Amino acid sequence: MRTEAASEPRYDLTTIGETMLRLSVPVGARLEMAATLDARPGGAESNVAALLARLGLRTAWCGALPESPLGRLVANHLRLAGVDLDGVAWRADGRLGTYYVEFAAPPRPTQVIYDRADSCAARLAPEQVAWTHLLDTRLLHLTGITPALSASCHAIVVEAQARARQAGIPTSFDVNYRAKLWSPSEAASVLAPLMTGVDLLFCSRADALRLFEITGSDDEMVTVLGERMKAGIAVMSIGEGGAVAWDGSTVLHAPAVPATIIDRPGAGDALAAGVIYGWLGGDLALGLRYGTLLAALALSQSGDMVVTTRAEVESLLASGGGIIR
After folding, report:
1. d(Cα 154, Cα 145) in Å, to the nearest integer?
2. CA–CA separation, 240 vs 147, rounded Å?
C-alpha cells in the first residue's frame, strides 16, 4: 500500500492495450469501391488516456508499436494530445493492427472490419511490460478487449491487476465486449474474475444483459452489476438514456446530451474518461455529467479520439449545450 510518506505518483492515469489504425470511408461510400481512406489511430485505452490528457491530467499509455511510419503516426497523435509514451515497446519486426469503418445511413448499418491478428500488441508478453512505469499512477485503467487478443495479453491484464492490488493502486475496468473477438460465454468466464473488486467498473446495459444475464430496470441492473462484481463504483451506459452509477449505496443518473451523430466509435471511451475525471477529483456526480457530455462530443466529431479542452467542457456544462462563441 502507498503511505502518506510515499512520493506523489507521476501520473493520474496509466493504461495498457492495443492502439490500431482506423481507415474509414465517407458516409455513402462503399469500402469495396473506396477511392480515399481517412486514417486515424484508435484504441479503447489510448482514447481514454488522450482525452484525459486534453483535460489537463497526466496520463501514460503503454503498449507495443512497430518501428514504422504507421507506428509513428499513432505515437504522433498521442503525443499531440499530451500522452506520455515512455512505456511503449517499439518493435522492429511487428505490425500495427488496423480496422476499416464503412459509415452508412439507414437502412444500412455502419460496418467495422478488423485486421489485427498477430499485431505487435497481441504479441506483447508480461516480461516486456515496463511495470514500474505502468504502476506509477493514481489509477490503472484496463479493458476487456486486451485479454481477448492473445494468451499473453490476458496474462498481462491478470498480472497488472495483481501488481496494482499489491501496491495499493486503484484500478478501473471497462468491459468493452467485442463480439468479433470472442463469444459472450467465453468473455463472461474470462472477464468476471478481472472485473471483481475493481474500484471503477464500466459496462453497457447491453453487455450486462448479454454477458452476465442481468435484467431489470436501469437502477436494478447497475446495482446488481456492482454488487455481483464487488466493485467500488459501477457505471452503466444506457444509450439514449445517458448513464447511471452505483456507489455502493446510491444510484446516480445523468441524462444523455443531445448530439448530431457524425462518428459513433469512441463514445463509450469518452464516457469512461469523463467519469474517471470526476472520480479522480472526488466528485462522481460531476464525472457522470462530464462523461455524458464527452460522449456527445465524441459522437459529433470524426475519429475515435475526442479533441476538446477543459474550458470548453465546463462552458458547455454551464450553458446546457448550444453554441459557444
Report:
1. 9
2. 29
| 268: its cell numbers | 463509450
- Say which residues have a Cβ less than 8 Å from residue 198's Cβ, sequence separation at least 6: 161, 171, 172, 173, 229, 231, 232
pLDDT for the residue numbered 1: 44
Instruction: Please list, residue by residue across 139-158, b when 16 or more beta carbons sit within 10 angstroms of its beta carbon and e when fewer do.
Output: bbbbbbbbbbbbeebbbbbe
Cell of 165: 492490488
* Positions of the chain with pLDDT under 70: 1-6, 320-325
Quote the pLDDT of residue 17. Answer: 96
- The residue among 112, 114, 92 whose CA lies nearest residue 104 is 112
Neighbouring CB atoms inside 10 A of 249's CB total: 6
Q: Please, is 304 exposed, middle or buried when counting C-beta atoms within 10 Å of its C-beta (0-12, 13-18, 19+)?
A: buried
The one catalytic residue among 84, 136, 269, 304: 269
Report the pLDDT value the prediction gives residue 321, as an integer from 0 to 100. 54
**Of 227, 219, 221, 223, the residue nearest 196 (C-alpha):** 227
Write down the residue that cell numbers 462530464 correspond to. 290
Q: Which three cell numbers stand for residue 57?
A: 491530467
User: What is the predicted pLDDT for the residue at 276?
Assistant: 98
pLDDT value at residue 172: 98
The answer to whether 39 and 21 have CB atoms below 8 angstroms apart is yes
User: Grid cell 469495396 — which residue?
Assistant: 32
**Which residue reads 511495470 in cell numbers?**
131
pLDDT at 93 (0 to 100): 87
269 is catalytic: yes
- Name the one residue in this structure whose C-alpha cell is 505502468: 134
